[in-house]
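Office hours follow-up: a student asked to see two folded examples consecutively, so here they are.
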Amino acid sequence: MTARSHTLGIVGTMVLDRIVPVDREPIEGWGGIGYSVAAAAATLPANWGVRVVARVGEDLFHEAEGVLASIPRCELRLTTVPEPNNRVELIYQDGERRTEYLSGGVSGWDASDLVDALLGCDAVLLNFISGHELGLAALEDLRRRVEATVYADVHSLFLGTEPDGTRIPRVLEDWRAWYACFDVVQMNEDEFSLLTRASDGPETLEDVLEAGPGIACVTRGSRGATVAYRAQGRTLVSEVTLLHPRSGDPTGCGDIWGAVMCGRLLAGVGEVRAAESANRVAAANLDHHGVVGLVDRLADVPLDGGGGTYLDSSTEVEL
């Protein structure tokens, strides 16, 4: 048995999903942080383990715990809360665009409790599944008190919630304070567009790096991702695309992409190679539904090379 000398703490929310694809029957299953955990378990270096840190509604606690407990090399740090667990209905308009409805309302972390739960972790992946996992003050406190690399997928920080549960895009006005707490930040292209609309929003990814992160990633669905980073005193932006894009159910692909990107960076590969791996593994999720069985599906994907479906193309420019 391989000794686990390092630990990645993954913070997020377990969600019971109801997915309504275009022209197909609805699909129900567990998602949320489960996608990140499964991807990390399938692709992290052998000497890394996963600590799952989540608050779970008492109505679905045992079911969620059972799903996470079935994922290998995971240590669970789950907290029961009295609120109903989060449930999401995703209604797709096409292969990538969707309307999202949230019910339930798991409350966020207190900074001290979260610090205790992450004690001993060498790196932290914050996946803002609901956007309510922790507030800015708690995040800043966490950043001061935890000596670990912090990777953040900021997805739902850009989503508000209407009274009927509809998730609606919103501008993150205090984005500089949020982003200053992250070593690596991930968003999709719609979220980056919202970011540029803030009162002091960035014009380019170089402006995002100036706010504090060392690496900024923008995922672009079937077109791959853009990664900005600094190397030898230069700021570089790389477009990393799949040469043979695939179609299917994209639910969870962004969560998987982030877990793989985070893990490959922890493994010491370069930013572009890490993004290539993330593209390949996320694409493999398109023909799989939900978290159950996902580890085995993703473990079959070649991380550092491959042919056919998994070919990549990279274009690098200097800013």
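And the second, which I mentioned at the end of office hours:
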Amino acid sequence: MVCGAGAIGMAMGGYLASAGYRVLLLTRDSHAAKIARDGLRITGAAGDLHVAVPALASAAQIQWDAEDVLLLTSKSQDTSPLLLQLSSAPRSLPVFCFQNGIRNEEWAKREFPHVYGGLVNFSATVVGPGTVEHTRSDQLAVGRHPNSLDDTTGRVAEALSRAGFQVTEDAEVMAWKWGKLILNLNNAVYALTDTWVERAFSLPPYRAFMAETMREGVGVTRAGGIEPRMEPGSRIDAFIESLESAGSNHPALQGEPGGSRTYPSTWQDLSRRRSGTEVPYFNGEVVEMGFELGLPTPYNSTLLELIREAVERSAAPGQYTLEDLEATVRDKT
């Protein structure tokens, strides 16, 4: 059961259903109505897929089964209301948090004893009701929270592998999620300046700013006793260094379709004038930890403050230039 299914959740659910697994999507009203009538459509990186899959807008309609597995795919700001909606679910069900940020597992564990971390390293965008574009990558990782593996991780990993994902089982999945948080520190940059991942990675000024934002985040988390990790064979320090030197040939963009545009969730939130973003759960984590440790965080505090202001004003992406961001950081140092 995929709960809080937006772009990522609909893509995961669609691929699982296409592989023959019993899937139910718990999603927004507009998606549920469209999917119930016309099926779910996925386009992009893995080709075009049209699959029939049950979809509901309310958990009150769910008939629970003892064999259900809950995959949470909502954004962090939506986790608490989602867990409240799932209050009728049996407490024995395993819950996998395929979500960005590192607090969702803690929140889920207040309600469900069997909680698992899920790392999402692929991108998808909602094109319209019941339609998702899978823009890039296909990597996932799973592990039992806080740091172990069991039969359930293996069972879910096998299902996701059969659905077409590259899945890693790792007891230290939360370290991976900290690494993803470091990458996501720049989601605010794309939203504030109205650009996309591929373009930003091809421009030296963007790469330099993003590298410093990540370097600041890594410094704070390490000072707090946390070592962020990236996928096997990739060191986060080397990734940051390559941002400043690799240009449009950056390894993160190799093998991607020509002309593709990946707009992270924060850009999508501003574009849709939503009332919140995940930035407090990305940059906010670094700013709060930096405050507790007495470490300055001018890059991350700038991004956090400007995104909060944009949300309060219901502002669209692109309210600032990169030069504006650089000037605000300088004012803080």
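Two things to take away from it. The chain has a mean pLDDT of 93. The chain has 14 helices and ten strands.
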